Amino acid sequence: MFKGTPEIIAQRREEIVNACEQLYQTMSFKDITLKEIGNVTSFSRPTIYNYFHTKEEIFLALYEREYDRWNADLEIILNMDQQLSGEQLADQIAGSLEKRAQLLRLLSMNNYDMEENSREELLASFKRAYGQSLRNFRMILEKHCSGISSTEIEQIMYVFFPFMFGIYPYAEVTAKQRNAMAEAEVEFAYQSIYEVTYNCLIRLLTN
Hints:
Number of strands: 0
CATH topology of the largest domain: Tetracycline Repressor, domain 2
CATH superfamily of the largest domain: Tetracycline Repressor, domain 2
Radius of gyration: 19 Å
């Protein structure tokens, strides 16, 4: 790790993560290299190694930032004055994920490899952001779904959080995938991120 001031370290780490995010808008994970990321930053590729040892660590930091952004949205829902109905709550949570397409895209990747190729301290930092989303989600359910038990809340969470890994592949279908589905004569109802999420939540929260 580069022995600079905390401000410089944070600034350069942020610049590297921003470069990765910029590339990820038009490139896939496998096509993004440390060289490509270095080309978008203001310093050389070898300097990146002072802050991140692998490409996976950079993506993990981007992943953590996406959870932080979603947590901010969840906290807005949590702090709403009025109690929401099941339909209203499904709408609010679906809307929050509709804005987090990048989080859902990262969720659809091979997280095992990303976490395996990251140092434990960076993985722990990521897990704190993820853990906060679990806590926020649980508190939202406890506040707005007062009629359900703690066991039912756990069951909802163990359905919804694994479900999130599949939202992006179902909602963001490429032209190539659409053509292949048509050629294979597979019937498929195309839905947006909001629709996929809302339809799941409405069944979990109103049944």
